Amino acid sequence: MDEMVLQVQKWLNVSYSFRPNWGGQVPENGRTGWSTMYGLTRALQLEIGIANPVNSFGPATLAACPTLRKGDNNHVDSIIVMILQGAMWCKGYSPGGLTGTFGPGTEDGVKQMQSDAGLTPNGIVTPRVFQAMLNMDAYRLVNNGDENIRLIQRNLNGNYYNTTAIQPADGHYSRDTNTALIYGLQLEANVSGANGHFGLGTRAATPTIRIGDSRTNFVQLIQYCLYVNNYNPGNFGGRFDSTMENQVKEFQSFHKLPSDGVVNLNTWMSLLVSTGNPDVKGSGIDTSYTITPARAQTLVNDGRQIVGRYLTGSFALSSAELNTIYGSGLRVFPIYQRFADHAEWFSYNQGIIDARDAIQAATTLQFSYNTIIYFAIDFDVSLQQINNLIIPYFTGVHEEIDRYHAMGVSYRIGVYGPRYACTVLSERGLTTSSFVSGMSTGFFGNKGHVLPEDWAFNQVKEHSIGSGAGLLDIDNLIVSGRDQGVSSKDNSVTTPNIGDYVSENAPFMNKLNELFNFAYERSDGDNRIASILTLNYLRSENYNSTVWIPIAGAIDSNFVEEAEQRFGKPSDFPILYDPITGTDMDFMHMSATLNAILFQKTFTIGDLASKLSDFAGWLGDLITVIDDAKRAFEQGRFNSLYDAAYYYIGHTSDSAGTFPLEDLLGDMDAINIGRALDLNDTNANVYEEMNTYYRLGFRRRFKQAAHNRFEYNREEIYNEAYRLLTTLNPLISTPRTLFRQAFNVDSFSNEEAENVAKAFRDVCSEWLDKED
Description:
Layout: H1 3-16, H2 34-47, H3 59-64, H4 78-91, H5 104-117, H6 127-133, H7 147-164, H8 175-188, H9 200-205, H10 216-228, H11 242-254, H12 265-272, E1 284-286, H13 293-301, E2 306-310, H14 319-327, E3 331-336, H15 348-364, E4 372-376, H16 383-405, E5 412-417, H17 419-427, E6 433-436, E7 455-465, E8 472-479, H18 501-521, H19 527-539, H20 549-552, H21 557-567, E9 577-578, E10 583-584, H22 587-603, H23 608-613, H24 618-634, H25 641-648, H26 661-679, H27 686-695, H28 701-710, H29 714-726, H30 730-742, H31 750-770
InterPro entries: GH (IPR017853), Peptidoglycan-bd-like (IPR002477), PGBD-like_sf (IPR036365), PGBDSf (IPR036366), Rv2525c-like_Glyco_Hydro-like (IPR015020)
Pfam family, one: PG_binding_1
Domain Rv2525c-like glycoside hydrolase-like: 297-476
C-alpha cells in the first residue's frame, strides 16, 4: 500500500462524493488503479465546467483543460493543481506534496515524467501532459521490456504526441505503438485527417523508399517498423544502408512479398497492418461455400491452388465435394470449428471432445495421416482468455490427438486465430501451424503483434469471385507454403474405434432424429421450440405431474398425443446405452432435467436459472435420497448417515433407491448437453447435441459437468449442494418445500443436509478421478 495514494483517494472521496454527478467513491486501498484515475479525471472535468463527467479524457476535456506551470497560480484554481498532484502520486512521479501549489517539487516531477515519455522536459503541463498523467500507461521500462522499443516509443512521442497523445514508453510493442507508427507515416506524408488507421488516403500518400533515400523521417519510421517486427535495421538514424536493405528483404521474404529491398505500399502495409495490403491476391482461399465443379473452375481460373474447408457443421465438406476439389487439381486443408466464436466455448474438456470429433470427421473423409487440422478461435480473444481458456482447450486437443497417435491415427494440430494467440500456442508446443485471422485488423491479438513464425495462411480480405454457377464468396489467403494441404484421398485411413456407441446406440439416435424432425415440422422450423417439444415427449411418461410445471414448464399435450400416435410411448424407444459403465441410461430422467435447463434459461434471469433447473436433476435427486439414507441409517444398515447417502448416490440400482447410477449419469449429461444448447446459435438442436455428446463427450462427463456447473472445483460441488439444501432464500426454499412435499420427503436438518452434500461431492470426486 502506498500512503500517498491512499491520501489521494481519501481526498477525492471527501472532496467529491457529495457532488451528485461525480460518479461514486473510489476504493481507499492505497493502490493505484483505473478506479482512482477515473475519479481524478471526473474531478478535473467538474472543475473545468463539464457538467456530466465521464471516465475518459476525450476531446471535450482536452479542449477545456488548462495549461499549468510553476508559479502560474494567480489564475489557476489550486484544486486543479491538487488533481494533477494526485495523478502524479498515483503515476509514480512525486510532486512533493498534495498542496494545490505548483512549486519546484511539482515541476521536477513533471519534468521527470516528460523525460521518461520522450518529451522536452520543460515542466509545463499542457492538456496532453495532463491527459497522460491521468492514465495507467507506463513511461519506464517494465517486465523485461526492450530498450530499443522504448527508444522508438519515446521518439514517436517526441515527434508526434500533439496528434497521437502520449503513448506508453514501456519497451513493449503494442497496439498503441502500432497506432503511433501509422500516425507518424500519415503526418510525414501530409495525409489529411490523420487518424491512426491505414485507409485509402494513407495508401495514396504512402511513398516508396529504397536504399540511399534521403527522406530521413520516412526511413526512420521504416526502421522502427522493422525492429518491432523483429528485424533489426542496424540503426535508427534514418540511413537506408545495405544492412537495412537486407533486413527489408528478409522481412519481405517471410511475408511472401517480392524480396527486392524496396519499401513500397505492400511492404509498408505488411509492416503495419495484419492484412498487409488486402488487395494482393494470394494463392489460397477459405470459404463456407460447397465447391461445385463450376466453383472449382472459378478457383482454377483465378489462379488459386489451395482451399480451406470445414470438417463439420452446416458448411461441412462431403466426400463428393472432396472428389470435385481433388479432380480439379486443387488442394485442401481442413478447418475444425463448431461454436468457437465466444470465450465460453473453450475449456480443457471441450478440447478433448472437439479433437475426437475432428478425428472422426477427418478419417471419415480419408484425410491422410499427418494432415494439419486447424482448430478455430473466431473472436477477439484477450490475454486473460488465452491463459484461462484457450491454452486449456488446446491442451485438451493436444492430449487427445496424442492419444490417437498411439493408435496409429496421427494428425497434427493447427490453429486459426489472431496473431498473438497463434504465437502463444506455437511457443508452448500445442500447435504446429498457424492460420492467421489477419483481416480482423483491430483485434487485440493482431494490432501490435507480429506474424507467427509458423504461419501457413494469412486471411486478408473477404470478397466474391466468379459469376453465375461459379460465383462464390471467399476469404483471400496469402500462403506461406509451410502447409501444402492434401491433394487426394488416402484409402488406407480408417475411422478409429472410439467405443461401442455407434453399434449400441444407433437405433436410439435414429429414432430420436425422426422424433426431432417430426417436432421441427410442427414448430415452423424453429430449432429451439422443436428441441423443447422433443424433450416434452421424452419426459411425458414419467415426469408430467404438476410439480414439474414450475421447474421444467408445462408439457405440450397436443404434440405428445401426436407423437405417441406415430412413435408409441417413450418407453417404446430403443435403449440408450452407456458403454463406460455398461448402464442402460434413463433417458426420460435425463430429458426432464434437460427440459428444465432449457426452460429456466428461457424464462429465468441470471444464476437462479441453473439453481431452479437443478431441482429436475441432481438437487431433486439429493432431496429424495435423503429419505433413503435416513431410513437405511435408522434401520442400522450403515454406521452413519454419510455412509448411507454415499451408498445410495449413484452406487446402486436398488429399487428402493431414488438416486441410482443411471440418474446420476443423466444429471451430468443434461448439464453438459444443456450448456452446448444454451451457447450454440439458432441452428443448434437437441438431436445434434445429444448425438455428438453420446458419440464423444460422455467419456469425460463429470469433468465437463464440474466445469459447466461447479466452477471446476470439487469443494464447490459440496458448497452448492449444501447451500441449495439449506438456504432460507424463498426463491429456493419455496420450490424446495414444494418438491419435498410432492415426493413425500420428511423435513431434514442442516446436519443431515451437510452429510448428504459431502457424500454427493465424494461420489462425484470418485468419478472425476476415474476419467482419463
